[in-house]
Structures are given as C-alpha cells and as structure tokens.
Amino acid sequence: MPSDAGSSSLLFALLLATLTSATPLILAAMGGILSERAGVVNIALEGLILAGAFMGVAAGRVSSLVGLLAALAVGALLGLLHAFLTQKTRMNHVVSGLSITLLASGGTRYLFQKMLRDGVQIEGLPQWTFTAFALLLPFAVLWLLGSTRFGLRLRAVGENPESARMAGIASGPVRFIAVMLSGVCAALAGAFLSMSVAHRFSPDMSAGKGFIALAAVIFGKWHPVWAAVGALFFGFFDALQSQLQISHIHLVALGIEWTNPFLLETIPYLMTLAALVLLVGRATPPAALGIEEA
Amino acid sequence: MLNFVALDIANYLITHNLKDPNSQNPQTVQIAPSAFLTPLIPHTALTFGLLLALLSALAVALLIRFTALGFAIRAVGMGTEAARAAGIAVPRTLILTMALSGALAGIAGAVEVLGVQHRYAQGIAGSYGFDGIAVALLGGLGGGGVALSALFFGGLASGSSYMESLTNVPAPVSVIVQAVVIAFVGMRLRPRTVAAPILAPEPPAAEPPQRKEENIAL
Hints:
The complex is a heterodimer. Chain A is 74% helix and 1% strand. Chain A has helices spanning 2-37, 45-58, 64-88, 93-115, 127-147, 149-159, 161-166, 171-198, 209-219, 224-246, 261-280; strands at 252-253, 256-257.
C-alpha cells in the first residue's frame, strides 16, 4: 500500500523534525529550571546559547570533542558571571541577564568577524547524540532536584533563602553551582544548533530560542519533565508548520493566503500561547525567584 | 513570543496585501509627503519625533509619580499581594500598563516610519525593542535618566558605524560596550547588612531616657 508507506514516512519525518526543533529548547529549558528553582531569573539563556554555539564551531575546528568541551566551558563561565553579578554585586537579575545576552551577542559577532568570517564549516556531532541526551536530561534534572541532597538545598534556596540559612544552608554556593549548571545546559543547546544542525556559526543564530525555552519552563510550571513536554509541544507545531511549508497545500480564504510561510511560522507561537492560557493556567514561580537580598 | 507573531504578520502584509507594486523589495508604498514628520534640522532625520519622545518621557514620569494609576502601577510592581491587600485592582492595573506600554512602543514605530523611513520595510524595527529595555534599566526606570541613557545608546549606535569605517574597530564592539556599561551601572556594591539582627542577639535598649533629656535640652 503505497499511500500507507507515504503517510508513515511523513509521520516519521514529522517526528524527526519535532525532535530536532525541541532538542535545543529542552536543553535550554533545563538550564532555566536549574537556575530558577534556585531563585535566580535567567534571561541570559539566549546569550548563553549564542556563546555555546560560537565556541562549538570556533573550537570545533580542532575536533568535535574540543568544541563540545569549549562550549560547555564558556556556558559554565558565563553562568558563573551571572551568578556573580546577581549574588555578589546584587544586581537585578533581569539587568544582569540582559547585559550577558548583549555581551554574548556583541562578543560572538565581533569574534565571528575576526575568526570565522569566511564561513567555517565543521563536521560536528550527529544530531541523535544531543537529542538522546535532551530526552534523558529532564529525568536526570527531576532526580537531581527531587532525590538528592543538593536538589533539596537548591529548592530550599529558591523558595526561602532565609529559612534555608536557618537550616545551615548558605544560598551563595548553591546558587553559584545551580546557575553554572544552567549555563552548561544552555551552552549545550547552542552547541547543538551550531555543531549538529547548521555545522557553522552565524551571528544571532539562537533566534529567540532562549526566550521560548523560558516559556517552556513556565508551560511546565518549573517541573523538568513537564517543561520538556512544553518544548516538545512547541517543537511539534514548529515541525508541522515547516512540513506544511514544503507541502503543496494552498489555502486561500477571505483574501488571505493562510499557507504563506510567514503566517505558518506563527503557528507554534500561537499554539503555545493558547496552551498556556487554556491548559496550563496560572503558574506559580519559586517563591524567592528574582528577589534580591536586601 | 508575540514578537515573532507580530513580525511574521507584518512580513506577510508587506509581501501581499500592502506590498509596494512598483518594487521588488518587500515593503509598503511611501506614505503621503503631507504625513512626513517635519525635520527639526533640514535634510536630516532628526524630526519632531525627538520632541514627542521627550514629551512622552516627561508624561510617563509624571504619570508614575503623581497619579493614582501611577501609584497603582508602582504598588503592583513592588508586590502583587500587598497591592491586592491595599485594594488595588491588580489585573486591571496590569492590563492598563501593558496597553500603555504597547501604545508608547507604537509611537516609537510610528516616528521611525513617519520621520525616518517614510515606509514600512522588512526589519526596520531592528533591535529597538530590546535596546529599549536596556535603556530603561540603565536610566533607572525614570523619565530623566531614560532620556540620558537613550542619548548614550544613540551615540553608541550611530558612532559604531563611523568607528568601523574610520578605524579598524568592528561595529559589534559598541554592543559589548553597552553590555559592560549596563553591568557596571547595575551593580550595587553597598556593604552587606543582611540579617545581622536575626543572627546576633538583640542589643540591649540603648538608654532612651538620656536621649529624651537631650531632646528637651534642644
């Protein structure tokens, strides 16, 4: 039955595209959860993705492993910078995140002009490695948060740093480690984009994925597995719209060409917003999120 | 996320219903010359938009400081629970604030089109929205400070292209400068006074009778 084979291969393509689209979102969303459950708002995700993407290619010219390690290292470093700015200099978390995102955007653009202008291409890593890791990571984060001593401390610090300190847990070190891990996750998302999808770096290639990942975090109410579901939800509609773009379906009604690529691109965003309003409802963030110590 | 939706819809419109039929580029037709904003200095892009911007900065500062709505906005911003307890309609305030915020951003877009571009073309919004957040934060979220920080960002933006053509310094350096300036302005390096009273035992009351005598003597 050729039609059956056709539809099953279409479904398979849809599934693959869903995973490709959701992989960086899941990775970055896990970064968002680690940081935000510890009480640190992480608007810097977007910049961390960019930095990871750049390092993946810049150092990935040597070997893929070096590229991956360099991406993780720059994510950890910028994560530490975010932790330092918010915890040691008590900067507003949004200001710090914005400044790091600007730094990464300008910095990678600058280094791109200096180092990679002639469009360096790398072989990179196969996509399935990142995707498999991204599918396992939410459960690892769930375990870390729910079943380990560090996870309990992380949540305590995010809900009520005052009480945590009464119990003998200093919020500083816990938050530093949490935000550093957050940076590593986000940088991994960037490394996936540059090393496995594009095989090259281009300025601002993160294209808002850090912010979509934050939406996935809210979608999942700061629960790692549900946040991954949120990322897959967005990824599915993103895959669906790109399949519709390459299909030959044309729908024109009321003078509007509904199957125009620009309009199709809005589907994942609108569906995610609709799901946030209709299915998820009110989401309560960790109680001490973004609250600076006096 | 509505950023992407708005951009996509605008891009659809300028390639379809609102497309300039005489151009290959995705853009609208030019607006009527009578709708151009008058330049403050002839033959430049500096128009009455600048006055509009300064006026709106003043208006927002006055609104936030001296009106009931401004009080409600500040209260909600500091904590929704306390605001609700004080009898402020939190959802109403949030909706009004978002509407006002959208209207102000809309003026920014209109000034760019009516004063500078004279048509809508792909990507003319650039990174104004994102930069606007940075400008607001750098300006301490107040009218006067925002005007100054906007001037600073404007200088960096227009200076960076000259810098690139005159020297060998690439334009993205200006973005790095922005990031560093925001970071240093945002730091609060006051000495830490957290929770010392909770950990230390309450100090004994510091002889209030003597103070009373001093007050009487004064």
